[in-house]
Amino acid sequence: MRTKPLLAAILCSTAVLGVSGLTAVPASAAPSGLKGDFNGDGYADLAVGMPKATVDGSTTAGYVNVVWGGPQGLGHTGSVRISQSSAGVPGTAEAGDQFGTAVASADLNGDGYADLAVTAPGERLKDTGTDHEGTATVVRGSAAGFSGGVTAAKGSWDGRLGQEIAIGDFDHDGAKDLALATAGNGQGGAALLRRGPLTAGSPEDLSLIWTYAAGGARAMTTGDFDGDGTDDLAVTYKGMEASGTHVLSRGASGRWQPGWNTGDYGSDIATGDFDGDGTADLAIGEVQANPEADGTYCQDRLGGAIATVYGKQGTALGGKVSCTTQSSPYVSGTAEPEDNFGGSLAVANLDRDSIDELIVGVSHEAVGTAQDAGSYLWLAAGQDGTLLGPAFTQNSADVEGTAEAGDLFGGDVATGDYNGDGYPDIAAGAPGENARSGGVWFDASREEGEQPPVTSTTPAKLGLSGAVEYGAELGR
């Protein structure tokens, strides 16, 4: 049984999507409605973005590999490759496009199937000049797999649209919207809104959410942070003159208003109900202090720290704040410089109680003498709000592989019910594995019975070509 640390301290077939188009998968009778289930078969699928991958000889054109979920989880039911060279997907794969920089999934057209949102911030939209305006694309899910796509948004200046992405109904009209981050070339960045529905023929207009001086968003997430029943946007950002994390809400007038903010910023953020009180909490991973601010949530940040800001009824994130490091009680590992503790975050209710767990990547953790081998943890909140829990490396029992220098195990983490047993599972990327070809590890969650082995899915096992740093960008 996998219990909370508070209470207890091959490949069958591979479908490749190339120039010829979208390869079908076994059809399902009806969509499951499960998050991340692109073909509606009742299993969540995992989208792996590879913006540095080569496509048709074009370096860093980028593609997305979607690994199908199945009864045995990830890596046993094949995968499909999606690029701008795929029939039905807008655009052309060109050097430097970086298609797959950010990936996310949600039902974006209301048909019950999850759709794939993917960005290409390196895309050039003009025949002349050196600007990288960037694009966002939605590839539609269906019973037969993916069924073509539409251009959801285009950048209009050298802002590299799509550095980050978040999905939510921010304007409260019942249709999912995209929040997209830009990062200007020597200029300030911005967060922009592309309103839904995200269907063919819908307006591609972008409106301003917020601007960031001489910098931009490092991560974004969606949650109901003020408890009014609607989606809000949380952004952690860094610039030369200002940095911090804030929650933004779109009012009835269409204007965005900040509801909560701090000068602390991080490498990643995630939302969940970590204390089970029914309010949304916010975790800020690898938190850093704004040097211009008077204080910080985490004074001790050796090796990385996670600030958890708890919600409170009647206000936005008005509860207590805890700080967790690898020096915290009951947290596995040892805090060492540049561990990157909290550099990647994901959330799941692993045992389906009323409390979410936080999945934490520690990509630069040394394992024995192997520097930057990496690890990941799943953490639950203790009585004081501090998170606590065990860590896993490639040297852990029943984890496939061997911890080696530069593997960057835990470089990104994601969650989903990939084996269809009703409990969320964990996916952990290791982009440095096999000389930076990379890989993803599948950790099945079970409430009862012996914990199954943690198995790997790699480009070699999937028959993928041109793969670079597989596992660095996982869709959530």
From TrEMBL:
Protein keywords: Glycoprotein, Hydrolase, Repeat, Signal
Pfam families per record: FG-GAP, FG-GAP_3
Keyword Hydrolase annotated: yes
Signal peptide: 1-29
Taxonomy, superkingdom: Bacteria
Gene3D superfamilies: 2.40.128.340, Integrin alpha, N-terminal
Entry-linked SMART domains: Int_alpha (SM00191)
Listed InterPro entries: FG-GAP, Int_alpha_beta-p, Integrin_alpha, Integrin_alpha_N
PROSITE patterns recorded: FG_GAP
Protein name stated in the entry: FG-GAP repeat protein
Species name: Streptomyces coffeae
Organism classification: Bacteria, Bacillati, Actinomycetota, Actinomycetes, Kitasatosporales
